[in-house]
Specification:
The chain contains three helices and two strands. The protein has 95 residues and is mostly helical. α1 packs across α2. Belongs to the GatC family.
């Protein structure tokens, strides 16, 4: 698949990237190369291949999900401009 200059301009706009007109042909060529590579990947038979999270087969470590105060709430609240009753105090936003 080939990307033309207008499509490259549109992709740059959507990505919010400022690309000078002089560099649009290079961008179009690079995007075309990426799409060609993706087309090659689509030709690979991956039937029966398990998805991987790492190159080495291992289970992710799990820990118990416990809510804590971090062990030093006084130090954390000492950085707050305003703290009351062990919490950050903020101005009321909604009436």
């Amino acid at each position: 698949m080939s990307i033309d200059i207008e499509t490259a301009r549109k992709v740059a706009h959507l990505a919010r990237i400022a690309v000078p007109d002089a560099h649009l042909p290079d961008l179009a060529r690079e995007l075309s190369g990426i799409l060609t590579f993706m087309e090659q990947l689509n030709e690979v038979d991956v039937t029966g291949v398990e998805p991987m999270t790492s190159v080495t087969p291992m289970r992710l470590k799990r820990r118990e999900d416990v809510v804590t105060d971090g062990g030093y709430p006084e130090k954390v609240l000492s950085n707050a401009p305003d703290a009351r009753e062990g919490f950050f105090a903020v101005p009321k936003v909604v009436e």
